[in-house]
UniProtKB/TrEMBL annotation:
<dbReference type="InterPro" id="IPR002711">
    <property type="entry name" value="HNH"/>
</dbReference>
<protein>
    <recommendedName>
        <fullName>HNH nuclease domain-containing protein</fullName>
    </recommendedName>
</protein>
<dbReference type="GO" id="GO:0004519">
    <property type="term" value="F:endonuclease activity"/>
</dbReference>
<dbReference type="Pfam" id="PF01844">
    <property type="entry name" value="HNH"/>
</dbReference>
<dbReference type="InterPro" id="IPR003615">
    <property type="entry name" value="HNH_nuc"/>
</dbReference>
<dbReference type="GO" id="GO:0003676">
    <property type="term" value="F:nucleic acid binding"/>
</dbReference>
<dbReference type="GO" id="GO:0008270">
    <property type="term" value="F:zinc ion binding"/>
</dbReference>
<feature type="domain" description="HNH nuclease">
    <location>
        <begin position="209"/>
        <end position="262"/>
    </location>
</feature>
<dbReference type="InterPro" id="IPR052892">
    <property type="entry name" value="NA-targeting_endonuclease"/>
</dbReference>
Amino acid sequence: MAWDLKVGELKESYVTEDMIWQRLNYFFFDAKTTTSYKYGFFKALLENLYVMDEERNLHYDYLFYDFTKIYWNLVVHHQLWQSNAKSQYSSIQRILEDVQIEHTIPKNWRFDQLPVSLQQEIVQNIKKAGKQYVIGAFYGDVDGLFYRFHLKDESLQMNPPVLQFLKKYQRLITNLTNYQLAKFLEKYNPDFTQMLIRVEQVSQRENLKEFRELLQTACGATCFYCGKTSKKTLHVDHFIPWFYVQNDKLWNFVLACASCNTRKNKRVPSQHYVKALLLQNQQVQQQVRMDYFYAYQPEKLEELYQFAISNGCKVWL
């Protein structure tokens, strides 16, 4: 069984798009699924395509932070069952429910509302379970094409052509993953409605106040798009829209007045704003903790911008 693998090497160095689609088709439609873990893991992996170092290593702390956030919001916030057997808890569901009871946390709290120290403690516990049950299982379902890993290491290394493929088709594959996760959860939580909407929004933060304060301290209370200073509370806007990246990174945020934010909507700004964002990130990076910009590179942002457009994001201004 692949789930209990301790080490996984890349099976192929030369990988074509047809080979990757073949493995994804198996993963989505034919692989054995007893819990929702593998879908949640893949969703977290997709959210971290731009949080890898130059050697394409993804640190487990970043991967399992997003994995934990997804499952806290599914298990505690939405109270959704994660196993295909009502008589058997999934281990990750048990960990999260025990934490919620022990700390008497309101069930309507999302993960980012928890104290940071408690978030970190939960992530470490979920990481242990994830290393045991998830990394090898997903590796097996995609036949060792996607990444290599060693559980004693604290990172996995992506296969270059697979990483580029996932970036190229990120929107489509994210939607497929959300759909399959929602389909699994609907089957074992029949009383819940609007499951796909719940899954699509499960990675969203409760609020973006933290990012607003950081940006205002570094850049002032000025709209990134029209340049006007506002006495009203500025919106925190995903430069590359949320529906595409589905993650909250400081390097993808700008402050916007209500008018510009509404008019921009789900579009990407025109090319000259990319240069302005790169300059803003250079300024902000000097004033915040290093982890806010972990693995950030201007080239990655420019690549993400181009992939967003090729994936159907319309251009504004």
